[in-house]
Amino acid sequence: MCSKVQMKGILILLCPEIIKKAARKLHCREAVALDMFYSSRLYADLECEATKVWHYSSSKLANLLVEEIQTGRLNYPEEAS
Fold it and tell me: Are 37 and 22 in contact (CB under 8 A)?
């Protein structure tokens, strides 16, 4: 289990990559993607260690963010059993 300090470290590393990749996919400036990201359900879930969303790659998280922005829905992939 991650401590709050470890979670902050993970988010500091993940967030810029997610924003860059999402901005490219959305054809917008990073500042616009940043605003969308911080107001998204994905970001709220990332802040909560218990969701384990931070285990996904930055590319996967960027795709989830783009999907949430475009559809208004956030659908996490099923974990392989």
Answer: yes
